[in-house]
Amino acid sequence: MTVVERREIALVDLLDRLLAGGVVITGDITLRIADVDLVRIDLNALISSVNAQVPSPFEGSL
Amino acid sequence: MTGLRYVYAVCRPFGTPLQAQLTGVGGDPPRLVPHHDLVAVVSHVPEADFAEGPLRAHLEDLDWLTAVARAHQGVIDALTTVTTPLPLRLGTVFRDDSGVRSMIEAREESFLRTLDRLEGRVEWGVKVYLEAERAPEAAAAPAPKPASGRDYLRQRRMRTKSQDDLWQRAETFATRLHETLCESAEDSRLHAPQNPTLSGASGRNVLNAAYLVPRAESEEFVERVDRTKDGVPGIRVELTGPWAAYSFAGEETGEKEGQ
Question: Has the keyword Transmembrane helix been applied to this entry (chain A) (predicted)?
Fold first, then answer.
């Protein structure tokens, strides 16, 4: 099967799967992140990184 | 106290060892936590980065998110060469191995059921784009300067109409392609169309779908997608994969699938 060239996977395609797919474990575990949050975070992070060509003012500090 | 457990996937036990030099999230090699008939694949991650608070903060950091996503994918990819993994969502973290085991214990039956459903299957991603406004007519023959208000409105209507037609055509194309591909797939999921700013892809994403296909039938599936590729001017089809069955890892029963 040589049909598909293995280019580097685009981050958006990966995030579609890692942030909206996969088994969501809820229950009595120590940590969990609501899926809604993750998707929102993903978009915020991406949009701000695309829009802000300037370095974040928080860079380097915490 | 050796940190928290970041869980990538749950699998049936597999005989073949993972590549020795494989590293996961935070550079930690993936380790196996067996429980009954299942194995969780985990990395030890520092509490300073992966406890709830820091994790939330880190997820706002694109570079950090990218590194974790790529590492997660790397481990899942390695697993697909030796078994059929059931990937967990990014950022699933437990306090310790016993927390991981209790989680498996609690969900054992559903994990086994899902693993049976996914055994020997892979996921293919298919996206359809409407190419950015090419308006070939306009380029070939610039519209004459409108002689009157009525002329202007007529020209404008025509332009809008041709845009609508193109959109309509892309919609029809995507719907038909989706139906065709569903025939060759065991299951499908529609992801939200991708924002062009984020994907960097040109054109407008009208279909962003995932298809669950037996590995053995993948070649046929790919050919089927390829055959549609050059069909319609102004429309672009993109294929990604094979992926582990991320989009199909959710349980079928109970609540509706995401999206």
Answer: no
Cα B31 to the center of its chain, rounded Å: 25
**Contact A33/B197, CB-based, under 8 Å?**
no
What is the chain A residue with the closest CA to B218?
Answer: A1
Distance from C-alpha of A23 to C-alpha of B124, rounded to nearest angstrom: 18
Q: What is the pLDDT of residue B133?
A: 63
Q: Is the pLDDT of residue B5 over 50?
A: yes
- Between B195 and B45, the more confident residue is B45
Q: What pLDDT shows up at residue A45?
A: 56
Of all helices (H) and strands (E), which one includes residue B25?
none
pTM of the predicted structure, to 2 decimals: 0.80
Q: Is B195 on the interface with A (CB under 8 A)?
A: yes
A18, B240: Cβ pair inside 8 Å? no
Query: In this structure, are residues B101 and B224 in contact, taking their beta carbons and an 8 Å threshold?
Result: no
For residue B233, the model assigns a pLDDT of 83
Tokens of B216: 């053995």
Which tokens sit at B47? 């509490």
Question: Which CA distances in Å does B45 have to A24, A42, B95?
Answer: 19, 21, 10
Closest approach of B19 to chain A, Cα-based (Å):
20
Check if the beta carbon of residue B108 is closer than 8 Å to that of residue B100: no
Q: Percent of chain B at pLDDT above 90?
A: 56
**A23/B88 touch (CB, cutoff 8 Å), yes or no:** yes
Q: Which pLDDT score is estimated for B155? A: 82
Which residues, in sequence order, are bridge partners of residue B122? B213
Min Cα–Cα distance to chain B from A55, Å = 12
Q: Is B229 on the interface with A (CB under 8 A)?
A: no
B62-80 and A11-20 helices cross at what angle (nearest 10)? 80
CA distance B16 to B21: 14
Nearest chain A residue to B87 by CA distance is: A22
So what's the ipTM on this one?
0.81
Contact B56 A33 (CB under 8 A): yes
